[in-house]
């Protein structure tokens, strides 16, 4: 029997709040209720929920290319709004995994693969931001480790005009199932 995990990518204040330095705009705000409802459903069904969060030191070389964002333990790195409330209500549930990442790919040098393997997870449902960057590369990482990937179209957003092509590439390149 298949075991599934929901992987929530980079839903931080810096990416979702309209005042955040790399916010994805109204599209990011619009996906929050969907993600919260999906996370509730996963926990209710005894499935896993992974929160993968971008994590940078204040002097990270990453900021040569991007504005300063998601600095370790900053307000900007915290989960956004309803998702933070949801996490605070559920953080003691042993079906929740919090994973920090220094790279776009939630699987790159994070130990996430091992955490999911210990729980016999074989299918990863991915939501979050940005569709064509961190979500795309996380789908790539999941696929490289042999996980089936499912992308929830209503649960992803980006600040570029590459939303649809990002989804098409995940479907084509990583055989991701795209759920409307």
Automatic annotation (TrEMBL):
InterPro entries: Isochorismatase-like_dom (IPR000868), Isochorismatase-like_hydrls (IPR050272), Isochorismatase-like_sf (IPR036380). GO terms for molecular function: hydrolase activity. The keyword Acyltransferase does not apply. SUPFAM superfamilies: Isochorismatase-like hydrolases. It comes from the Bacteria. Pfam families: Isochorismatase. It comes from Nosocomiicoccus ampullae. Keywords: Hydrolase. This is Nicotinamidase-related amidase. Belongs to the isochorismatase family. Residues 5-174 form the Isochorismatase-like domain.
